[in-house]
Q: What sequence folds into this?
């Protein structure tokens, strides 16, 4: 009974219930056109990159911060990496070099964020808002990044089209084949790594402690400055990887493709149970929330609803997430 009571007090429990109910309702309304293999494959594919971004936002929010620059880091990293690979004739058979270059660039940008935040103890939202604008300016202005589509290295396209399995269905008089992308494996790996980091390591405990109270964390012996620097560095590295993964899945490198992505990811993380005040959040809740947003976005086409309504949905998520987070903080503080 005590375990059940604790479970029902957690935001993730209700988010999971909402996710299941939403799937059932949309499946019924769409005439049984959601919970079928081809649609599930499409949803999982759409969740891959957003899910990795959400994990990055989660660990930052647990530490009590906000990172608005992760889309700009990813975009700058994959744009420069793709350009280098194209000009040098790399990644025609294997995309590994492209990923390494993109992750290296993301690491440097993440270190820049971490250095400013950890040394000067500035507001993380304002710092990353500034660096976001700076990274976009570097990409579009100084480096003059261009869109790369048809000339994309063959190695990137090969990874993006690689599949685990396929499902063929008949629509009218023609057969349509849907693939379960092999890239979903990367999301699963990052989910496992993030769960292990937050639940089983001292670094994860430090993030929760810093998010709960930075002063108390320092008194408890945690090196807050070093932890924050490592956190934003790792986030930059992962964003570089996720950005390049997006290039492979979409078969194009567009410098401005991720502009505004933070306005979808951060509300999802908050909806998934992460507190805007820090110290709370789980991988399970975050993935459930990303699932809700992805399912709704993909179902709008199936249900014939204009995609412009997605902004309304995202706005509601922001308000609900912030309200829930504020109520939880009020209860926690008595």
A:
């Amino acid at each position: 009974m005590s375990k059940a009571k604790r479970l029902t007090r957690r935001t993730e429990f209700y988010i999971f219930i909402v996710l299941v109910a939403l799937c059932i309702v949309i499946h019924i309304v769409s005439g049984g056109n959601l919970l079928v293999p081809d649609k599930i494959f499409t949803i999982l594919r759409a969740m891959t990159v957003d899910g990795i971004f959400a994990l990055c936002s989660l660990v930052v929010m647990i530490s009590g911060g906000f990172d608005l620059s992760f889309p700009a880091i990813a975009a700058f990293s994959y744009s420069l990496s793709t350009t280098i690979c194209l000009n040098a004739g790399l990644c025609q058979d294997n995309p590994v070099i492209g990923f390494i270059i993109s992750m290296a660039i993301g690491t440097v940008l993440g270190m820049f964020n971490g250095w400013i935040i950890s040394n000067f103890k500035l507001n993380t939202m304002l710092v990353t808002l500034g660096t976001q604008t700076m990274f976009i300016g570097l990409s579009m202005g100084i480096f003059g990044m261009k869109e790369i589509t048809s000339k994309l290295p063959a190695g990137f396209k090969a990874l993006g089209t690689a599949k685990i399995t396929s499902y063929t269905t008949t629509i009218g008089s023609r057969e349509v084949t849907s693939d379960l992308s092999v890239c979903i494996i990367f999301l699963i790996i990052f989910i496992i790594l993030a769960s292990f980091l937050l639940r089983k390591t001292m670094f994860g405990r430090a993030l929760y402690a810093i998010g709960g109270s930075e002063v108390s964390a320092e008194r408890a012996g945690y090196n807050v400055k070093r932890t924050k620097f490592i956190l934003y560095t790792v986030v930059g590295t992962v964003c570089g990887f996720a950005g390049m993964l997006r290039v492979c899945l979409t078969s194009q490198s567009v410098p401005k493709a991720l502009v505004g992505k933070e306005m979808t990811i951060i509300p999802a993380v908050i909806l998934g149970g992460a507190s805007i005040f820090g110290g709370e959040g789980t991988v399970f809740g975050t993935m459930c929330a990303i699932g809700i947003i992805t399912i709704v976005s993909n179902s709008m086409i199936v249900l014939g609803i204009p995609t412009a309504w997605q902004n309304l949905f995202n706005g509601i998520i922001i308000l609900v997430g912030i309200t829930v987070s504020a109520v939880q903080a009020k209860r926690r503080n008595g």
Q: What stands out?
A: The longest helix spans residues 224-250. The two ends are 24 Å apart (CA to CA). The CA atoms of residues 312 and 318 lie 10 Å apart. The chain has one domain: 12-327.
